[in-house]
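Entry:
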Amino acid sequence: MNAATPTPLSYLSIKCVLSHIDASLRLHLSSVCPAIKSVDKVVPLKISVLTFKPLEMHIDGTKYIIDVIRHLTDSKTFENVEEEFVDFWNSYEKNITADDIAIDTRGTRNPRQNFNELVAEQIRLRKEIERLQREKNFFSNSLIFTTQAVSASEAIRRLELQYHTVCERLSKFIPPPHMDYLRLSVYSEPNRTEYLESNKSAYEAMKYLIRKLIGDRKSTQIKTLNVHPSSLIVLPPQLNIKVKDFRLSTNSSAVFKSLRPIFDSSIQLQSNGSEWEIVEVCQWQKTFMFVSLYRAV
């Protein structure tokens, strides 16, 4: 006797199931089951804790992290690209739209500013080394000024170390021939990693991921939203978040105002004081941060 053919769930049944399963599992199912994608978008997504960091998003117990891996084409070497250099040659500004929400707290300490300062420091050190070398040569030809010659040699040695450090730092901005890959790491059970040849900024990729997972929805309901704008966060305009508690790791009114468009228009947030807390800056570093607290009223 043949087993009966399973009957597909009805539209209403799928809506009911989606409204009661864990947010991370629901997002995963939606990404691998095209049949439920349209239903998933209309059922309110409920998340206990949502966290935005530069190139990171945490949804309850699942972390989504985007970084850049560089392959040097003349070798088998692969290396992580520090966030400072992520968008230097492939800047997020190239792909940003007028509606995107860009929170940039780097101020003048941005990659181009650092690059220009390093170039200026390289030129200064080179000129100073050349001057001291002439001075050393002059004193070395004298039997009287031997002390000055030794001092000049020591000064040259110190400056050459500084010059080497600056050149090494600049090499990260101007690397040898290479190919960059975007890496998406999803930390959950089981952990998984995906690689994609990079032709866009990592920040643009993070914006796309946020939109794909929690954007373009009728409603996203968050119990606690954490935003840690330690450098640069780019959010898509297609967010519509209802939040109960909002924790912002800065007391900047400008940052708070720039985030207002992501909240549902029915939400009114009221300041609820502030506190210091230990925040995970990256996977291997934690620090104390000042956190402004807000609550929906």
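The longest strand covers residues 269-282.
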